[in-house]
Amino acid sequence: MQVSRRGVVDPFIVMDVMEAARAAEAAGRHIIHMEVGQPGTGAPAPAAQALAQAMQTGPLGYTVALGLPELRAGIAALYRRWYGVDLNPERVVVTAGSSAAFLLAFTALFEAGDRVALGEPGYPSYRQILRALSLTPVGIPSSAANRLQPVPADLDGVEMQGLIVASPGNPSGTMLDRAALSALIGHCAARGISFVSDEIYHGLHYGDRAVSALEITDDCYVINSFSKYFSMTGWRIGWMVVPEDHVRVVERLAQNMFICPPHASQIAALAALDCIDALEANRAVYAENRRLMLEGLPKAGFTRFAPPDGAFYVYADVSDLTDDSLRFASEILEGAGVAVTPGLDFDPARGAQTLRFSYARATADIVEGLARLQRFMAARAKA
Fold it and tell me: Please, which pLDDT band fits residue 383 given cuts at 50, 70 and 90?
């Protein structure tokens, strides 16, 4: 049978790196994982306990398409706690991970053929989901001077119907302050451009907290997830906040595309919202890992990067070391036993000269990974 043109999307390279690392482990090697943005910790214990209790009391089945009302209320309360935003829970849409939220958002907001802009470097699946929906991704090259975040001047003269912005960013970990985020939102509002704010790394900051687009405007889509701060990647549970007049549009799409988010994951997510001490302890681990990375990467020869404000990544310019990041990452995996992600995932134009290092795993892994990188790069320099 034929394959549709929109179905032919690029691979998610980090997943290919994960598979190569898995194969190496299956062959008996010990690999340090700095490739994937997955917390080394699991879901908070009370989340699993809440699910176990629920499974004893009755079967789990369909929920309403927008998610359990108590979970939507809990997420709205999170916005009051984190940002001081009084959010109507009816605007909260619980989704099967942030990936489902992107599908719903792009389908609800855009017509086939519309142009949706995204900063580069940026999360690669934006581009591929847009293509699979017959939309046109428009890369906006960001500069090191702006800490790899787009600014309004980058958008001038670019035809677009939508803009998606991530702060903290993936792969950079850099954030937009209130003034910078407001400037982008204002630019889009003046031009009638739909604004989508990817906030899935909120909660993971190492100085000032991240600013939510909902602190600035209600005329936007905000997407978040329990995967990162809440350490629930495999549970596939996320959410988005939409304008009140979009709720029914999104609800009808969700009913038909997904029926509902996973009931089990919703129960666990509701309990996770109250696990503040455990989650903040996780953030303290990432902060220590970040400190180690900022000290250790330069010792290995990786000196060109913007210190991350949030998330758990360092995005390094390695143009002084290679012009083929895919091959370089493969060499590092083979020679050092450390899995890292080529920048081609995040920036098709410039990513051949960049690498992303994740510090989401246990601190002992970060210490060992940095030691391996330093030995490998020292030997490489002598070769």
Answer: confident
